[in-house]
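ok new one. same drill as before - structure tokens go in, u give me an amino acid for every spot. 178 of them this time. try not to just spam alanines like last time pls lmao
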């Protein structure tokens, strides 16, 4: 399936599942080396990162925990000014190494808010792992520690990413056709 229609938009396949998995393998290998003695808490940002977090965690071979937060920051195909924490953390973060697992970093607004929240809760070292990064869209000064893939500033769906709630189930990533 090279093209799909989701709601009122057409999308074309742009990143194969095999490419996604190979990219996750690379950052998991680096994490297995970098973090093996840290006992980190991985924090997956829902909903979009659930597939990435699942595949990443299957490749992590050291003691760790995972938790989830849900933040709404997208409506349709563009970022909104609203930031709403819907599901919060219950774990004690004081002095703890935390790895934020995100599906996509574009402007960096969501990640900036997440970092602020984690710092306010006393997290020690905070690292960011993202499946996808849109460097041309970045507006906030954030450091990404583990980037699986850099992509153009196009709207995409699949592999956990959605268009108004649809398309998350696609195993490949698709780019909108304007």
């Amino acid at each position: 399936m090279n093209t799909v229609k989701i709601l009122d938009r057409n999308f074309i396949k742009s990143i194969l599942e095999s490419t996604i998995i190979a990219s996750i393998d690379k950052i998991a290998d680096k994490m297995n080396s970098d973090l093996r003695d840290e006992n980190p808490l991985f924090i997956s940002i829902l909903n979009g990162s659930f597939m990435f977090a699942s595949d990443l965690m299957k490749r992590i071979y050291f003691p760790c925990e995972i938790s989830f937060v849900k933040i709404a920051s997208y409506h349709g195909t563009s970022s909104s000014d609203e930031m709403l924490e819907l599901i919060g953390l219950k774990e004690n973060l004081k002095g703890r190494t935390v790895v934020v697992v995100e599906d996509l970093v574009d402007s960096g607004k969501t990640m900036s808010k997440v970092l602020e929240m984690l710092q306010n809760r006393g997290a020690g070292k905070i690292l960011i792992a993202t499946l996808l990064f849109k460097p041309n869209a970045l507006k906030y000064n954030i450091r990404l520690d583990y980037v699986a893939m850099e992509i153009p500033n196009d709207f995409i769906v699949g592999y956990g990413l959605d268009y108004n709630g649809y398309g998350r189930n696609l195993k490949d990533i698709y780019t909108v056709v304007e």
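The longest strand covers residues 65-75. and btw The two ends are 19 Å apart (CA to CA).
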